[in-house]
Amino acid sequence: MTHVRAAATLRAALFAAGLALGFAAGPLRAEVIQTSDNGFITRDVAYVDADLKQTWLALINPAGWWSSQHTWSADAANLRLTPQAGGCFCEKIPEVDEPDRFTLEGSVEHMRVIQAYPESALRLVGGLGPLQSEPVNGVLTIALSTVDVEGGTATRIVWEYNVGGSMRYEIPVISKAVDGVMSQQLEGLAQKLGKVVGPSDQPDTAPGAAQSDTSAPTPAPTPAPTPDALAEDPVVIEAEATLNEGAGDEVEPKRKGPTVEEAFDDLIDPDR
Length: 272
Fold this sequence. Notes:
Elements: H1 3-21, E1 29-36, E2 39-48, H2 52-59, E3 79-81, E4 88-93, E5 97-98, E6 101-102, E7 106-117, E8 121-125, E9 136-149, E10 152-165, H3 171-193, E11 195-196, H4 260-263
Antiparallel strand pairs: 1-2, 2-10, 2-11, 3-4, 4-7, 5-6, 7-8, 8-9, 9-10
Helix pairs in contact: 1-3
């Protein structure tokens, strides 16, 4: 398939996935949580039977789980992601070498990494799929956290895509379509790692139920100025170790950088 036909397939599949599927596979919690005249926010949640390191290593290798149907080359094996600030989530467009036609290799930048906290959170910017042709700004945040599930622990993956700007699509239509595609990608990652039922998919536990040590109360972070809808389903993100640990009392602690909580406080709630 040429990259032109692949592009057409991508656009058609994006609308089919969002409108026809709605995404109904497994315990994914997918929804458009906010819309406005010039933007929307989608959020999807999955739980996997893998620890944070295993989940992170799979996440940064999209060739292993991203749908080939939603690539420009029609082959997810051409995807790569560099998990460093400025790193590219890019796709190679293979050269064509046929008896009657020859082209050089090309490439596509899907998104660019702006923050990478290994085993905690990955944030990228860019317009995916047909949004690439529009003057919009899309921010994709993927947050990982450990949660208690029946029989042990699991990793919770929250996948949030915040899109804003002028676009030639009807917001109610494109938002549902994009959410369907985002859910499909998260489903691919969850299936690769082993999808499980998470605590939000189970009945509430009785008052006084035993809690994991990782859920011990911590001081609430200062709320960030984010849309009200983001507070409806926040994400738990484990804090990074204190950089001054082990320093003697006689040494004045050096100022450290922000913790993961401080950097992603718009997605934190220790009770969820």
